[in-house]
Amino acid sequence: MELKQILQGIEGIKAKGSIDIDVPDITNDSRKVKKGSMFIAVKGFETDGHKYLKDVIKLVINAN
Question: What global pTM score does this model have?
Answer without folding.
Answer: 0.75
